[in-house]
Every structure is written in C-alpha cells, then in structure tokens.
Amino acid sequence: MSTRRVLPTTTLLAILLIVLVGCGKPSAPVVVQPAPPATPVETSAAEPTVPALSDIAIDFKLIADGFEQPLFATGAGDSSGRLFVVEKTGRIWILRDGVRSDKAFLDLRDTVSTDSERGLLGLAFSNSFAEDGLFYVDYTDKSGTTTVSRFMASGDAASRGSEQVLLKIKQPYANHNGGMIAFGPDGHLYIGMGDGGSGGDPKGNGQDTSVLLGKMLRIDVAGDRTETRDTEYGIPPDNPFADSTKDAREIWATGLRNPWRFSFDRATGDLWIGDVGQNAWEEIDFQEAGSTGGKNYGWNVFEGTHTYPPDAPMPSDAEKYVQPLVEYDRKAGQSVTGGYVYRGIAQPDLLGTYFYGDYSTGRVWGLRRSPTAAENRELADTKYQIVSFGEDDLGELYLVDLSGAVYRVVSK
After folding, report:
1. Is 168 helix (H, G, I), strand (E, B) or coil?
2. Cys staple from 112: which of 34, 53, 90, 91, with CB 3.0 to 4.6 Å?
3. Which alpha helices (DSSP H) does 197-243 contain, by range?
4. Which helix (H) or strand (E) holds 100?
C-alpha cells in the first residue's frame, strides 16, 4: 500500500463526505483539498439559476470526423467562428459550421516526428490575432526535440516560411512530451513540459530546477531577448527564478509528470492542470488566479497524494508540495485529460462546471467549486479516446476523440 501524507482534519472530513455520498458507485475521482475560495465571477440578475451538478446530464454532438489522429481543437479568439483542429501527424484544419477547409491551415508533416507520444501537440493564438495574424505551435521535430514556434497567417492559410523558432528543448525519451500551450490572462505564453519520459522520472527532472522538463513554463513572447541568454523571448520579471543564474528562468511551476492538457478559466483566470500519473494515480492540479509562481506539484516525490515509489517514506518537507485538487485511481481511469470550465452561453445548465475526462476509459467528470465546498460527479461514460477538450470563440466546449472526430458538449 502506498503511503499517504498526513492531511488536515478539514480535508479528511471533506474526503469522508465524498466517500459516503459515492457509496455503491464505481471508483471515482476524490476531491483532495478543501475548496479554496472561489474567484468571484460577475453575474447578472437575469442569468438563469444553474442546476445542481447532480441534476446535469450531457451529450456529445458530432461536429466533424475523418481527421487523422486529432489532438486538439480551439477557436482563434478573432470572432470569426472558425474552429481549428490539430492533427498529431502535423496538420491543422479549419472548421466552419462543421465543414472542413479544402486545404490545411498549416502542414508540418515533413517536420514533425510522430513516434510514440511525439507529434504536433499544441496550438495557441495571439491575443491580437485578428490584427497581427500571429499564432504559436508546439511540436516535436524529426530528432524528437520539443519545438515552440511562431507563425503568421493571412485569411485561412498560414505562411510556412514565416516560422520563427522560439524555444527548443531536447527530449531524452519519446514519451511525456507535454505539448499544451496557452496564453494566460497575464498575456504570457504558458508551456506544459513532461518530465522527459521513460518511467518514474529516472533523471529526476521534475524536481530539478536547472532543466525545463517536468515543469510549467512561462515566457513573454512580446519581450526582448534576455541579456544573459540568446533567446527569442523575454522572461517575465515575476517568474520564480527570473533573476537566477543557476535555475531555468522560464519555470513557472515544478513537479509535473506530464501536464498533457491545461487551461485557464476565461472568467476567473484560474489555472487547471491535468497531470498524467505513473502507475496508480491521476490528478488535477489547481492554481488560483493571482497567486504567485513557484508551486511544486510533487512529482516524482509524490504521485497524487501518495509517496513515490509507493514504499518511500514520507519526506520531512512534505508541506512544500502542493496537493492536487482531485485524484483518482486505476479503477476510474489510467490517463487523465484536463479540460475547461464552461463559460459559453448555449448551455446555461453547464455554467461554472469544470469538465475533464480519461483517455483510457472514456469517462467524463464535472467539478464545481464554491467558497465552501468542491463537488465532483461522473457525467458520461463514453467510447471515445478522449485526448483533449477545447473551446471556441464563444466559450462553447468540445471533445476531441483520437480516433478521428470532434464533438460539441451539450446538455440534455
């Protein structure tokens, strides 16, 4: 049996309540932390009352299929109504009202390695994309090196020759490449990096602040090159190691195994991270908007709330590691896919619900936070290989199935 760290009494009571409510049901995620204060969201008196999580039912409306290993879908934030679908094999397609463009928006198939977990893994659009046409991708090149690049687009086509490589990170193995990139509410680009792969983080990258692997990175893509390093970006001055000469200054958070998908709540700015586990535990990590960088999410000292390896003693400095908000075991799933807090307008019953799923089992859960509690519930048991969720310009939510399809999440 793996060793748990000692939890505060309030946490134990919260877990006990959830266990009692879920008696007789299949294994499900457990809310580990007492709910942190929920970030206020401005509401209108005319807005409908959101039903209890227990009263929500969801379905999945097919938008388009026939993709080659789709990994991600997103709007461009330019009010064009376009949905961009990323394929692992190196192409990005545009959907308009469910109809795919005749030509790919971007084609990197001759540049991308697709071995194991490698591929074209992430896409993020500039906050001023409608004016500047700039967007960013994360892919592994033919040598397996993580590459974060900037491109320029005009209309429905990106200029292949406009590529500007911002960052390259060598990968020791072909798995745990991370790959998600997203702009935070602060305007900086966040980059999810896995621990480098293999199993158990053999190189100790998750806890090594001199390397970029096993981290959440944060860079200023509009900033000038740093004076001490030849980079194509700036370092935000409030990064935890911004002034260091020995630590990687791009680091925002440490102790991550493979933060495959993360997101920012578009209403509050809270950061949600789905970190894929090793052999026993999957987790959702959480950072409230406005909090400082430097959080350590535990890997490879902890897997979820459990010491790693399972027979390892509790470390004397256990308090410095941030517990996940949610964890679940192998009876519930084997590979967590982080999602989004729904902030659209077409599905009012879903407002404020964080959706996440599991790639291996196809299960989808909803999580709600309030100032006093956090509630988690299974909302669907699907046949999909849930590799990602996504948002369009209006905040509507999508599910991406690796087998080739994109669905819209709807209430029923």
Report:
1. strand
2. 90
3. none
4. strand 99-100
Question: CB under 8 Å to 216, separation ≥6 — which residues?
Answer: 190, 191, 192, 193, 251, 252, 253, 256, 259, 262, 273
**What per-residue confidence (pLDDT) applies to 380?**
98
Strands 91-96 and 106-107: antiparallel
Return the pLDDT at 370.
79
What six digits make up the tokens of 80? 């064009």
Is 70 exceeded by the pLDDT of residue 59? yes
Span 163-195, pLDDT tens digits? 999 999 999 999 999 999 999 999 999 999 999
Q: How many helices (H) and strands (E) does the chain have?
A: 2, 29
Contact 83, 97 (CB under 8 A): no
Q: Which two tokens stand for residue 257?
A: 């195994």
Residue at token pair 């578009």: 266
Q: Distance from first CA to last CA of the chain, Å, rounded?
A: 41
What is the pLDDT averaged over residues 330-349?
A: 97
Complete DSSP assignment for 111-132: TB--STT-SEEEEEE-TTHHHH
Main-chain phi, psi angles of 366, to 5 degrees: -120, 140
Q: What is each CA distance from 209 to 146, 180, 243, 253, 411, in whole angstroms?
A: 18, 20, 13, 9, 43
Q: What residue has token string 């200029």?
A: 159
> What's 342's DSSP letter?
-
* β-pairing verdict for 146-154 and 120-125: unpaired
CA–CA–CA angle 318, 322, 326 (5° rounding): 120
Number of residues that this document lists for the chain = 412
pTM over 0.70: yes
Q: Which of 12-26, 50-64, 98-112, 127-141 has the lowest mean pLDDT?
A: 12-26
Report residue 277 as tokens. 């586990």
Q: Which helix (H) or strand (E) holds 217?
A: strand 215-219
240/89 Cα distance (integer angstroms): 35
Per-residue pLDDT tens over the stretch 341-386:
999 999 999 999 999 999 999 999 999 987 777 899 999 999 999 9
- The CB density around residue 30, as the number of other CB atoms within 10 Å, is 19
Find tokens 């260091």 and name the residue.
Answer: 244
**How many Å apart are CA 225 and CA 230, to the nearest integer?**
7
| 133 or 48: which leads in pLDDT | 133
